[in-house]
Amino acid sequence: MRDDRKYVSLSCVDGFAIHSDLVRTTNPNMRDTLLDALSASASADAVSWLRGQISELSENFEKHPFYYAFSGVSRRFDKAATIQSENDTIVGWDEFRTARVALLLVLAEKDKDTFLESFSAVLNTADIREQIALFSALRWMPHQEDLVESAVDGLRSNIVDIYDSIALDNPFPQEHFTDEAWTQMVLKAIFISRPLHRIHGIEARRNQALAEAISDLAHERWAAGRVITPEAWRSCIGFIDERIAGDIAKMAESENPDDRAAAALVVAEEESGKLESWKTTLADELSKIETGDLSWKSLGQEMEDKTIRKSLT
Predict the structure, then answer these.
(1) Residue 4's pLDDT is what?
(2) Which residue among 42, 227, 235, 251 is least enclosed by CB atoms within 10 Å?
(3) Residue 255, Cβ neighbours under 10 Å: how many?
(4) Would you give the distance in Å from CA 246 to the centre of its chain?
(5) Domain ranges of the chain
(6) Burial call 32-49: b when 16+ CB within 10 Å, e when fewer
């Protein structure tokens, strides 16, 4: 992350609700992964300090020293440095996030009252980068039922990176959100041009309300002379009614190759038979799907790359 990076303000989408429980992975193993990644990136003094804090807090945890350590990361690590790791979960993280999540994994081992009080206290005073670390760590935290309101508030943030830390590359929403919450999260991702292919469970959590909402949004945008991301139609598969079939037909006839690619991907997966007539029109795209040259992942990555390039111009 560059020092001069600007945080982008977003329009908010309310109405989230979360349920269920999330099983966390083995914290010591993940903590070692984080420390190893930092050792290859950060200064030896900074990593030595962090290891010392982790050791002390593991043996004799006190809340205020934990708060000081969590905040103190910014005085010892480089916010502009991106870590390198073979673990896909943390690829692209900066040193601030990595070090703070390592500390949070120590907090996760404490008793419920200590954990919840400390997590809440840190979150209530957290700056942007501290919030990103807290939400990134949700997948490994205990007592998920007591953290859901924090995730709700985080998804309402008008800061791109805070939203992303929950919605993208994070299994928490897939495991915890009701259909209503999931629908709102995906719609917000569409509104603010976030990459849908990086949302865990984007296929598994398809639902009728989301499919209808995507169709409604598409019609609103088309009426205003605007477009909707081709990735959006992925969430309509299995819920193709007459109206949505018409939407896919519009995409199939589009001059935009990304629209046609998305239409072909829907046609290839849809089992209702309502889109069979478009297989001839989309023969070239369907052939690419069969050879592995076209997938939702490749289309999503292409759309994400285009968004990044556009933001740099």
Answers:
(1) 31
(2) 227
(3) 6
(4) 30
(5) 27-143, 196-312
(6) ebbbebbbebbeeebbeb
Q: Strands, E, within 29-162: which ranges?
A: none
Tokens 């350590």, residue located: 69
Within the chain, what is the greatest distance between any pair of CA atoms?
Answer: 68
What 3-state DSSP class applies to 56? helix
Using the predicted structure, report yes or no on whether residue 43 has a pLDDT greater than 50. yes
Which of these, 159, 182, 161, 180, lies nearest to 171 by C-alpha position?
182
Strand, coil or helix: 41 = coil
Q: Find all residues with CB under 8 Å of 300, minimum gap 6, and list them.
A: 195, 196, 197, 198, 231
Compute how many other C-beta atoms are within 10 angstroms of the C-beta atom of residue 124: 8
Query: Do 262 and 231 touch, CB atoms closer than 8 A?
Result: yes
Q: Nearest CA to 251 among 233, 224, 269, 225?
A: 233
Partner residues linked to 108 by β-bridges: none
Is residue 13 within 8 Å of 191, Cβ to Cβ? Answer: yes
Contact in structure between 224 and 196 (CB atoms under 8 Å): no
Rounded Cα distance, 262 and 268, in Å? 10
Residue 12 Cα distances to 5, 128, 164, 179, angstroms: 21, 17, 13, 18
Q: Tokens standing for 28?
A: 């010591």
What is the token pair recorded at 22? 């999330």
- For residue 122, give the nearest of 47, 64, 35, 78 by alpha carbon: 64
pLDDT tens-digit map of 233-266: 999 999 999 999 999 999 999 999 999 999 999 9
- Decide: helix, strand or coil at residue 10: coil
The radius of gyration of the chain's CA atoms, rounded to the nearest angstrom, is: 22
Q: Which of 58, 53, 49 is nearest to 28 (CA)?
A: 58
Residue 3 in tokens: 């020092």
Query: For residue range 1-41, what is the model confidence (pLDDT) as tens digits?
Result: 323 333 333 333 333 333 333 334 446 699 999 999 999 99
151-207: pLDDT as tens digits: 888 999 999 999 999 999 999 999 988 899 899 999 999 999 999 999 999 999 999
